[in-house]
């Protein structure tokens, strides 16, 4: 059985990679390469050309409309777009409650190394009173903080549920970054960089840094394949590639 897939945002860097992975993966057929405009502003389900899976890799402003249109077409949805806040996820979870036969997987980062790095940070989080995140991306990334950093901060906070929020002095000062779930995040946007995340954990007399550095888009391909392999059987909302890989 072949699963038909539509990729929205296929004209972009990540979307082009997703389309290539779909074409090269047995059991999947790429039936539509769509722009973000097609997916967001054409609610006619036929735009997805009968896809059983719709992959959204576009921009934060358009992603919710694309996901809503894809669900209305009857497809399961794989979201690789940043900007899915807790409020957006809650809204999507509510929408899926009325569609028990469908599922959505929201993936802040398709890199397996990134998922493992975040998981290691959650293991260490209860043992260090101070934790901050520094994320660096290419100058063209339009959102900050990154979805990966936001997800990492949320999971770190959850891991510290029994010990309380991190110590973060002087957070009223803008230079101290943006707090997400009590964790300060600092975003750098620089040419010559693809994606780097440092989680810096600190306690009396010691500092632990968990760093993940993406040097090539090839790092995303295994995670994309894993997500594609799982999305057809998912029901309801799943968040993070770790839910597919059994990490965390």
Fill in the keyword field for this structure.
248 residues; 11 strands; single chain; 8 helices; five-stranded mixed sheet; Rossmann fold; alpha/beta; Dihydrodipicolinate Reductase, domain 2
Write the layout of secondary structure elements.
Elements (H helix, E strand, L loop, with lengths): L2 E6 L4 H12 L3 E7 L1 H6 L11 E4 L6 H10 L3 E4 L6 H12 L5 E4 L5 H13 L5 E8 L9 H13 L18 E3 L2 E7 L5 E9 L2 E9 L6 H11 L4 E4 L2 H4 L3
Parallel strand pairs: 1-2, 1-3, 3-4, 4-5, 5-11, 6-8
Antiparallel strand pairs: 6-9, 7-8, 9-10
Explain what you see.
The protein has 248 residues and is an alpha/beta fold. The chain has two domains: 3-110 and 218-245, 3-Layer(aba) Sandwich (Rossmann fold); 112-216, Dihydrodipicolinate Reductase, domain 2. It is built from eight helices and eleven strands. The strands form two sheets. The chain has a six-stranded parallel sheet with strand order 2-1-3-4-5-11, sandwiched between helices. Strands 7-8-6-9-10 form a five-stranded mixed sheet. Helix 1 packs across helix 7 (221-231). The radius of gyration is 18 Å and the shape is elongated.
């Amino acid at each position: 059985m072949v699963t038909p897939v539509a990729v929205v945002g296929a004209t972009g860097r990540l979307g082009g990679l997703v389309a290539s992975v779909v074409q090269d993966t047995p059991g999947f057929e790429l039936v539509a390469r769509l722009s973000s405009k097609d997916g967001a502003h054409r609610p006619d389900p036929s735009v997805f050309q009968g896809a059983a899976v719709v992959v959204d890799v576009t921009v934060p402003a358009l992603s919710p409309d694309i996901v809503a249109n894809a669900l209305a077409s009857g497809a399961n949805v794989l979201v690789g777009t940043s900007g899915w806040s807790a409020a957006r996820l809650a809204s999507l979870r509510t929408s899926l409650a009325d569609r028990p036969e469908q599922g959505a997987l929201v993936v802040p980062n398709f890199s397996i190394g990134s998922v493992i790095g975040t998981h290691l940070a959650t293991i260490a989080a209860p043992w260090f009173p101070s934790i901050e995140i520094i994320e660096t991306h290419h100058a063209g990334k339009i959102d900050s903080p990154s979805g990966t950093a936001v997800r990492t901060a949320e999971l770190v906070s959850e891991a510290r549920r029994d010990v309380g929020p991190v110590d973060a002095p002087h957070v009223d000062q803008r230079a101290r970054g943006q707090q997400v779930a009590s964790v300060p995040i600092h975003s750098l946007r620089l040419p010559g960089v693809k994606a780097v995340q440092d989680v810096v954990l600190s306690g009396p007399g010691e500092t632990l840094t968990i760093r993940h550095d993406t040097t090539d888009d090839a790092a995303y391909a295994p995670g994309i394949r894993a997500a594609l392999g799982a999305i057809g059987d998912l029901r309801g909302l799943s968040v993070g590639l770790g839910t597919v890989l059994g990490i965390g």
